[in-house]
Amino acid sequence: MTGREAIQHKRPAISPELDPCTLSNYYDVNIVSSNLDLVVSFDNKTVSGSVTYVLKFASKRVSKLTLDCSYLDIKGVSVNDKSAPFTMLPISEPFGSPLEISLETIVDSEFSVSITYATTEKCTALQFINGDTGPYLFSQCQPIHARSLFPCFDTPGAKSPFKYKVYSPSKVLMSGLPEETIEKDVYYFNQPIPIPSYLVAIASGNIVSAPIGPRSSVYSEEPKIKECQWEFEQDMEDFIQVAEKLTFKYEWSKFDVLVLPSTFPYGGMENPNITFATPTLLCKDRSQVKVLAHELAHSWAGNLVTNCSWEHFWLNEGWTVYFERRILGAIAAIKAKRSGRQDYEEYGEKYRHFAAYLGWSELAQTIPDLAVESTSLIWNLTNQDPDDFYSRIPYDKGFTFLYYLENKLGGTKEFDDFIPFYFKKFRYQSIDSFQFIDSLYEFFVPKGKQEVLDSIDFEAWLFAPGLPEYQNFDTSMVDECTNLADKWISSFVKGDVDLIKATFDQEKDFASFDANQHLVFLGNLSKQLDSTDVDPLLVRVFPDVYPYYSESQNFEIIFNTSSLLIKYGSYSETDTTVQRFASWLHTVGRMKYVRPGYRLLAKHISRDFAIKTFEANDNYHPICKALVKKDLGI
Ligand code: BES
Ligand code: ZN
């Protein structure tokens, strides 16, 4: 059996499905509003203050309210402004120790609950560090770290508008629109659009700003601000306009970006109004601005229409990657048109396919290393830490599913009518994958597509583990890179250093390559070295004949070239290539590089060396530390 019928037996009794990763009883109440009133202390390394919720019973009255907390110091609770009894329940990792509040005294259906508290040293959401120009604080709440920043309904299944007030000795940014004040060292923000707690974000430090578009500014510490501006200003507004064309008007007013210190553990984080970004985007070739296309796309996928639990995370990331690639394709077309190309539309589509192919190869490469149960689109996260399930699966398997649907249902033209329908239907809500499938039926059946839908193996797409069926991506841009990799490999196999050097007219070979094509080239070279017997001493010559490594400021190229060398160059820990890579790993905090970087050292140099190198750096973000420890079995 295929189609929607085939997944009926997996359907939850109520939709959207409940979230197993929260201990709160969020389903018993509706959140009318949330208010945070905070004080940042750089001396104590804490955030303290109060959170106040206005709540309504959802259907029936309940006698208790349970909120997620993790290592919070709870000072007091009041219900309707009167001090109220509370209990901290025993800790149940990784979900923390929830706070239970008695609601016995409540008469009306609407009531307020206020909790005063402080964060502690064990807070996983915050990092206090020395920035380039002074003390710095930033948060990362997704997926379940908001509970270590404030008592909350820590589930993407519960949304609320937020207001924030913060006292801090230095500039504060939060995930809302700033509001004017004359009070010194006090910052106000308003987030009128209902958001889940994982999108609450705070940063404070010596931060300045520069414009990167009519509705966008970039923020960073002063020494980097010009660099940030250059890297992003060319594309930001184009991205927004293309995204709006695919969906509907950008609803959040401003799209600003904060470039954080290097310990920020992700490439980007879609905090509403203030996307957080890694400084590894500053690669001097504008190739990583694509991460902002991705975070921008979350303004619709994730931030307006939200996965109801991390089990359906692919709905957030798969859709976002789908948009990201549509945006990049459209931008490539715009640029091709400006440069006078006749076939600019085709070129844009080729570019999208190129990006899709890149994603597909990464997916194929990582699947063998993943726990099988994490390789399906829908996860079972009962008693699981969602951080442990993080991988390319929701991104690229999610993308592949949507790309498959796009083709199956008639191509971009047909699918493009569905996109605004879906995002309008579910905006401000949190949904599960079944509701997504239902919306496909709702939209496409009247268009005569019932049979097509019924022929789709939704069960396999959503629940089967492993690599999905390969899609017919246009590989013309990929082929250029593969051919070059073939040429390089054959000269490596011949095994003569001078010949290797002579074979490559580097300038000419790479003249038309952009950074992404370099990555495909490197990926292919690496794949071929896996299956070809090449003398490690020859591999070590590679940096001399591939100048883009030593010259590049592009972290992707640095990481991939170093990985290739360490994998196939048979180095030992005292070799400069290894030493240099080890020190480089101390300068980046983005887990995309840090985690595979240490795994690489453990596998190809030694586990001891990997652990020694890791432990020599005290600066990693708490989330990054925890995950590398798991990776290395510390
Ligand atoms: N929302 C994610 C980051 C995230 C996911 C943080 C899960 C915590 C838990 C963000 O939008 C993202 O996907 N970032 C990518 C960017 C890339 C796919 C362009 C990253 O960090 O590399
Ligand atoms: Zn994302």
UniProtKB/TrEMBL annotation:
One of its GO terms (biological process) is proteolysis. The keyword Hydrolase applies. Its EC number is 3.3.2.10, 3.4.11.-. It is an enzyme of class 3 (hydrolase). Coiled coil: none annotated. GO terms for molecular function: aminopeptidase activity; epoxide hydrolase activity; metallopeptidase activity; zinc ion binding. It comes from the Eukaryota. This is Leukotriene A(4) hydrolase. Belongs to the peptidase M1 family. Its cofactor is Zn(2+).
